[in-house]
């Protein structure tokens, strides 16, 4: 009782001491990065950053901030974002001492305690995992890669032609098609086919067979909330994950996909161990390279997410911008028609990746489509190494204190006027039609390809995504004419910590004449 009385009598002194300690701590935090300007409250509070992520438009928030405050902008007490190409390349270089931050990367785990390539923060483990996986993403050990994609393109064309062709007959109703959903069916079937040797079958069924797409939005919303609020350690704990996370006993969604993936992987590993495995797809390459069953299962889930949502976004956004720009649409279709007449692609086949790369305007459209609306805009912050680092940003030497998180303002990079001209917000593929080999063109290409990461963090699926986009854009404009059904509100789109989910891109499709 005497102790309680003492505490009570000294309550204001205790309160003052606590307040003083808190104030000094906040001041030190603010002072540490005070040389970097940013939105109000970012020097001492996470509120601005949380709101940016929870707005589902964080890429726009980061761009607005760097436009106003400079190429390095403060977005939190210990967080910066940058659109400086030099700094971004420096942080991700192969021998860079910068490492990933747990607050962001670990929030992307599908299962507690199990890291995939994107969530790994240990550099040595990350490097070894990449080395095991690299061949599976190339055509060297995945001989069925391009034929698999071609098969899915044929399925997509058949689906559109059999169910969604509108007529010019005044008595015949139109047949609206949700291109957002069809693009997702296509990319899911591609990644499952090249990854497991068997497509999920969404295109054939014209439906979200396993409920993955329906489950994705709920899962991504939860992941965004967990990441924004810093609650990853709590929700990644085994008890909480069992209560709220996906389970392999689920009848649909991510849980069912995890169960299906594990079964397919187990069957293939059994075949390999018995000497019957003769596949040449991605999964076979992973097994041959010595990856464990748990490693493959964890990576498979990442492939399905990163390999379908991001590529589907690239297809949707490029098609939307084409339909919104008749001049560009006509010019690309003229090049496609020329390629067909000249035998660059056979009458009944899908254009090869090698031939698609020879078509300059197609390549310009694809690159401009990736630049104008990013397929992925993850901030993927890196930690400044021990001792801090002096970097040159916009010609000015700048000291970054040890332990600071430095994130990627990808939209800001894609809109830099010194890289892309005075009209960076305009969809203009002609900006890419510079003389081959020119320094300006090479710089633009290098900066745009940073969308797929750089150096030791470059996306292994980049060649697959590029191949899918090239083939689909070519074949969709080769066979059909396209129009936006609701130009005032063409689609619904939201950014979930870097992954875009889009719905209801309603279009009208007409068969083209020969």
pLDDT average, as an integer? 87
Oligomer: single chain
pLDDT < 50 runs, ≥5 residues: none
Principal-axes shape call = globular
CATH C-level name = Mainly Alpha
Query: How many strand elements?
Result: 12
CATH fold description: Cytochrome p450
Q: Strand content of the residues, in percent?
A: 5-15%
Compute the number of structural domains.
1
CATH superfamily: Cytochrome P450
Q: Tell me about the biggest sheet?
A: 5 strands, mixed
Supply the helix-strand structural class: alpha+beta
- Spatial extent as radius of gyration: 25 Å
Q: Would you identify the CATH architecture?
A: Orthogonal Bundle
Query: Going across the major beta sheet, what is the strand order?
Result: 1-2-8-5-3
CA-CA gap between termini: 95 Å
- What fraction, in percent, of the residue positions are helical? 40-55%
GO molecular function: heme binding; iron ion binding; monooxygenase activity; oxidoreductase activity, acting on paired donors, with incorporation or reduction of molecular oxygen
Protein name: Cytochrome P450 monooxygenase ABA1
Cofactor: heme
Pathway: Hormone biosynthesis
Structural features:
single chain; 514 residues; alpha+beta
Question: How does this model look, in words?
Answer:
The protein is an alpha+beta fold and 514 residues long. It has a single domain (42-511), classed as Cytochrome p450 (Orthogonal Bundle). Helix content is 53%, strand content 10%. It has helices at residues 2-9, 11-32, 47-54, 58-69, 85-92, 102-105, 123-133, 145-163, 179-196, 202-205, 212-229, 232-235, 238-244, 253-273, 282-288, 293-324, 326-341, 353-356, 360-372, 410-414, 417-420, 439-449, 462-479, and strands at residues 72-76, 79-82, 99-100, 177-178, 382-383, 389-393, 396-400, 405-408, 480-484, 492-496, 499-503, 506-511. The strands form 4 sheets. It has a 5-stranded mixed beta sheet with strand order 1-2-8-5-3, sandwiched between helices. Strands 4-12-9 form a 3-stranded antiparallel beta sheet. A hairpin with a 2-residue loop joins strand 1 (72-76) and strand 2. Helix 3 runs antiparallel to helix 11. The longest helix is centred in the middle third of the chain and has 32 residues, at 293-324. The chain is globular and about 90 Å long. The model has no long low-confidence stretch (mean pLDDT 87). It comes from Massarina eburnea CBS 473.64. This is Cytochrome P450 monooxygenase ABA1. One of its GO terms (molecular function) is heme binding. InterPro entries: Cyt_P450 (IPR001128), Cyt_P450_E_grp-I (IPR002401), Cyt_P450_sf (IPR036396), Cytochrome_P450_monoxygenase (IPR050121). Keywords: Heme, Iron, Membrane, Metal-binding, Monooxygenase, Oxidoreductase, Transmembrane, Transmembrane helix, Virulence.
């Amino acid at each position: 009782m005497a102790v309680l009385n003492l505490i009570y009598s000294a309550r204001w002194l205790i309160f003052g001491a606590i307040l003083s300690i808190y104030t000094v701590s906040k001041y030190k935090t603010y002072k540490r990065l005070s040389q970097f300007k940013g939105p109000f409250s970012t020097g001492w509070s996470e509120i601005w950053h949380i709101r940016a992520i929870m707005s589902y438009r964080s890429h726009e928030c980061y761009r607005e901030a760097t436009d106003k405050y400079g190429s390095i902008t403060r977005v939190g007490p210990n967080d910066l974002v940058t659109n400086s190409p030099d700094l971004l390349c420096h942080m991700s270089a192969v021998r860079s001492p910068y490492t990933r931050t747990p607050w962001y990367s670990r929030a992307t785990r599908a299962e507690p305690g199990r890291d995939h390539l994107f969530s790994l923060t240990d550099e040595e483990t990350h490097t070894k995992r990449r080395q095991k996986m690299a061949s599976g993403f190339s055509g060297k050990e995945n001989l069925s890669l391009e034929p698999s994609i071609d098969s899915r393109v044929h399925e997509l064309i058949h689906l559109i032609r059999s169910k969604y062709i509108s007529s010019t007959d005044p008595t015949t109703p139109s047949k609206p098609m949700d291109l957002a959903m069809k693009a997702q069916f296509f990319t899911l079937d591609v990644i499952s086919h090249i990854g497991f040797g068997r497509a999920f079958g969404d295109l054939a069924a014209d439906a979200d067979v396993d409920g993955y797409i329906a489950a994705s939005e709920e899962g991504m919303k939860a992941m965004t909330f967990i990441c924004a609020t810093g609650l990853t350690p709590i929700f990644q704990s085994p008890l909480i994950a069992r209560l709220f996370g996906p389970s392999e006993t689920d009848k649909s969604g991510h849980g069912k996909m995890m169960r299906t993936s594990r079964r397919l992987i187990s069957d293939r590993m059994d075949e390999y161990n018995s000497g019957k495995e003769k596949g040449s797809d991605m999964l076979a390459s992973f097994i041959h390279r010595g990856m464990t069953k748990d490693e493959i299962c964890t990576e498979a889930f990442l492939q399905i997410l990163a390999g379908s949502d991001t590529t589907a976004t690239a297809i949707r956004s490029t098609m939307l911008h084409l339909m919104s720009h008749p001049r560009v649409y006509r010019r690309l279709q003229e090049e496609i028609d020329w390629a067909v007449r000249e035998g660059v692609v056979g009458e009944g086949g899908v254009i090869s990746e090698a031939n698609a790369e020879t078509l300059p305007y197609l390549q310009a459209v694809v690159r401009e489509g990736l630049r104008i609306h990013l397929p992925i805009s993850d901030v993927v912050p890196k930690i400044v190494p021990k001792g801090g680092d002096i970097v040159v940003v916009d010609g000015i030497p700048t000291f970054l204190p040890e332990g600071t998180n430095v994130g990627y303002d990808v939209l800001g990079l894609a809109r830099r006027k010194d890289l892309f001209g005075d009209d960076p917000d305009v969809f203009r593929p002609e900006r890419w039609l510079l003389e081959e080999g020119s320094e300006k063109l090479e710089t633009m290409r290098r900066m745009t390809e940073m969308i797929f990461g750089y150096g030791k963090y470059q996306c292994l699926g980049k060649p697959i995504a590029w191949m899918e986009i090239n083939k689909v854009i070519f074949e969709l404009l080769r066979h059909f004419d396209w129009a936006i059904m609701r130009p005032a509100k063409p689609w619904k789109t939201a950014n979930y910590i870097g992954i875009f989910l889009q719905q209801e891109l309603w279009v009208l499709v007409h068969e083209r004449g020969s």
